[in-house]
Specification:
Elements: E1 2-5, H1 18-38, E2 45-50, H2 63-71, H3 81-92, E3 103-106
């Protein structure tokens, strides 16, 4: 099993992040193509596209901007690292044995708006 890390930036553009967005879009395309190629060998390949996750990477974001980002998640908070880890574990488990080529969006409902 392979789980690639993409990003919501691959799905929803962000001003000033076109190169990052394009690279993460490439991760999704690679995931889908590789999943098609390697399924016959029993290798499942998926991707995860998180929104903003509460990690040290967000520690330097000014509090007002971070509050604005958080308010845009319908679930009302940032994601937790464990929530991403749980998704990866599930995708690698037998419970996801029929899942391949999927980009799992983990965004607290951001794209549901």
């Amino acid at each position: 099993m392979i789980v690639n890390m993409a990003s919501m930036s691959a799905i929803i553009g962000n001003p000033g992040a076109s190169i990052y967005s394009a690279s993460k879009g490439g991760v999704i395309a690679l995931t889908q193509s590789a999943a098609s190629e390697y399924a016959v060998s029993g290798i499942r390949i998926n991707a995860i596209s998180p929104r903003v996750i509460s990690t040290p990477m967000v520690d330097d974001i000014p509090a007002p901007l971070l509050a604005d980002i958080q308010s845009k998640h319908p679930i009302g908070r940032l994601g937790k690292p464990e929530e991403i880890a749980d998704a990866v574990v599930w995708l690698c488990s037998e419970k996801a044995s029929f899942v391949t080529g999927h980009n799992m969006v983990i965004d607290g409902g951001y794209t549901a708006q």
